[in-house]
Design brief:
Tetracycline Repressor, domain 2, 3-stranded mixed beta sheet, disordered N terminus, mainly alpha, 3 domains, MgtE N-terminal fold, CBS-domain, 22 helices, 65% helix, elongated, 450 residues
Length: 450
């Protein structure tokens, strides 16, 4: 059996000049699959294809194209053509596209939209990026509490075609304040004469529009929700966040965290689509910072030139020791950043984690120190073996504490804890490792550093 969603390749269908046959063939294919098939075409070919599809399939396919590709297509065509297409998209997807193009073109497109859609778009665009309001959809199903189930189903039947989802129906009062929620299943199973107020759940998990979108993701995950109502002011319902919105947020946040953990600036496109100059600009700042930081390691080594000259065998163990501290710190930083991101750990847990980390790092250091002392004894005798073993214990403890504490410090400073990247932690641990190693060696071997 073929893995393709349809027997005839989509690109072969596009070559068919019969528009009706094309639409009929693609009617049972998910728009995502169609979008993936045409992504590699030239922009002019994609736009011609979208024209042939007609409403509403063209908007569905366009919605599943890569955001950068959407922006290119919109910028290459007249607002008279793009405005109707964007109007047929989900409002939150439409806002994403409009925010990816220049201001002048955005205003020209908005001017050609209907008044109602323009107002919805401008209202959504007014929410700050990274908030629940910035990812919500305003297309929610809502009912007054005093309706009977029969009346509610009739009203819902009229609302449903224009709504994001109707699995959860929110209940509002005369001022549009959220007062309850009723599931579609509960509505169908209830007696037609029951009142919505009798079957709704009054305890509703919600989020304010100005709260962080990660909080929305957390609530949906922890409370097993399909939808999360978004409120503002005096609990007035303004939108909803769905599971698919959360998946997009989670993917974006994970990508951003991976970039930051590798000391790479935020890249708003995929790797293949990013230009060489963009990748250069996003990577060079942190690399330069890390180069400057590593100068301190070199300065530390230069300071202990006499110690190194007197015991050249110390140099053999230098990479092993400082890398071990950096590796231990990177492990700790990764665990803490992830724990902070998922909400498992908060700022007040720092002291508790500090005590645990000292014990864990101490045990790790002792184990690694014992292993490396054997190598030190065979390579350079008991004195060097003791210096190397003690240093290993200390650098692992110090590196681990740097990796554990740095994310908390950044969180306290209102910065993203993911900035406590592996290269940054490793560089700090390297500096400390050099100073610890040669200080112990100088003291134990009875040598005077320059």
């Amino acid at each position: 059996m073929s893995d393709s969603p349809i027997d005839t390749p989509i690109l072969d269908l596009i070559a068919n000049p019969d528009d009706d046959a094309l639409r009929a063939a693609l009617n049972d294919v998910h728009p995502f699959d169609v979008a993936q098939a045409v992504e590699e075409l030239e922009n002019a070919e994609i736009w011609a294809f979208l024209r042939r599809l007609g409403d509403p399939l063209n908007a569905d396919v366009f919605s599943h194209l890569d955001l950068d590709h959407q922006a290119e297509l919109v910028q290459e065509h007249a607002p008279e053509e793009t405005a109707p297409l964007l109007e047929r998209m989900a409002p939150d997807d439409r806002v994403d596209v409009l925010q990816a193009i220049d201001d002048e073109l955005r205003e020209r497109i908005l001017a050609r939209m209907t008044v109602s859609q323009r107002r919805v778009t401008e209202r959504l665009a007014g929410y700050e990026e990274g908030t629940a309001g910035g990812v919500m959809s305003p297309e929610f199903a809502a009912l007054p509490a005093d309706l009977t189930v029969a009346e509610a189903i009739g009203l819902l039947r009229l609302q449903a075609p224009r709504k994001e989802t109707i699995y959860d129906i929110f209940v509002i009062d005369d001022a549009s304040r959220l007062i309850g929620v009723v599931g579609l299943k509960d509505l169908i199973l209830a007696s037609p004469k029951d009142r919505i107020s009798e079957i709704m759940r009054a305890e509703v998990i919600s989020i304010r529009a100005d709260e962080d979108r990660n909080e929305a993701a957390r609530k949906i995950r922890e409370y097993d929700l399909l939808t999360l109502p978004v409120v503002q002011g005096d609990n007035r319902l303004v939108g909803l966040v769905t599971v698919d919105d959360v998946l997009d947020v989670t993917e974006e946040e994970a990508t951003t965290d991976f970039h930051r953990m590798a000391s790479v600036g935020n890249i708003q496109t995929d790797l293949l689509g990013a230009s060489m100059s963009l990748l250069y600009r996003k990577r060079i700042p942190w690399l330069l910072v890390l180069v400057l930081m590593n100068v301190f390691s070199g300065a530390g080594i230069a300071y202990f030139e006499d110690t190194i000259a007197a015991a050249v065998a110390l140099v053999f163990f230098l990479p092993l020791l400082i890398d071990s501290g950096g590796n231990a710190g990177s492990q700790s930083a990764t665990l803490v950043v992830r724990s902070l991101a998922t909400g498992e750990t908060v700022l007040r847990d720092w002291l508790r984690l500090l005590r645990r980390e000292v014990l864990i790092a101490g045990a790790l250091g002792l184990t690694m120190g014992l292993a490396v002392s054997m190598l030190g004894f065979l390579r350079a005798g008991p004195d060097i073996a003791l210096v190397v073993a003690v240093t290993m214990v200390l650098v692992v403890i110090v590196g681990s504490l740097i990796g554990m504490s740095l994310p908390f410090i950044l969180t306290r400073l209102k910065m993203d804890p993911a900035t406590a990247s592996a290269p940054l932690v490793t560089s700090l641990a390297d500096i400390c490792g050099v100073l610890i190693y040669f200080s112990i060696a100088t003291w134990w071997l009875g040598l005077q550093a320059a």
